[in-house]
Amino acid sequence: MISIIMASYNCEEYIGETIESIIQQTISDWELILIDDASMDNTREIIRKFKDARIKYIRNKENKGLAASLNIGLKEAKGEYICRIDSDDIMYINRLEKQLLYLENNKEIAIVGSNLHLFGEEFEETFTTFPQSSKKLFAYLPFYSPLPHPTWMIRRSAFADSDLKYDETFRTSQDYEFLYRLFIRGGKIFCIKEPLVKYRMSNDSISHKGKKADLNTFRVQKQIVKLLHISVSDNILFSLNYLKAKEKHDFISFLKCLYVYWLIFIKNMIYGVFDRPMLSKLIINHIIMTIKFSIKCLIKRC
Question: pTM of the prediction?
Fold first, then answer.
């Protein structure tokens, strides 16, 4: 019924706990397709300790990256539903059951996700608060991916074979690009309100913090702003990622950022690409965060 796709690279410390959380699920009709992306640690030895016929282990001869590894898993998958999990995260015991039940009862939904339980040794535990409906979720697209990737369960029948794959030119932001493609062809998503996955926070998982905004994110955002009839420029893309970017946090950049928020609001009022109330709420939140962030930057410089 369910094919769980997991790609792993040098995750010996956590992968055993992740697999245990899958084995303990309240439903048993699943297969785990585990793609080892040429790990150089003891990942393979840890996986082989699990004597479960439902686990299929595939090892790449060379490191291919996440998108290519996930596509290998998708080709091997036999399930009616495709489930994602990362190799350092943990499933709640009823995750598969709840998402399967939702998709069985809501045939119009292509992908169902859930909120996340965020945890980590150096991070305070907290929970995400994404909205539930497809319209509200897709309003996040101008800023970032609207549905946490490790929580996805995909209805295979909602996609042609050519659509059910990741763009391998994206070393990062594969999920963002995938959801953008789903959005432009009218697909629907849903986010279960309660968290069903414990997402391990680490310096790697927040790799954009204190760095330049991800260029792959820019690639998706270029297409999104075109939907709003906005001419793409470096200023537009920088402003959309103002809170993640490392450089140019001066007063001029701050004003440009506010202008871009206003421009997106006005263009969406005209063209109605995204849910207006939700996008307006997100823009207000981003303005508040931008003001607070700019004040902190100013204080540091002083």
Answer: 0.93
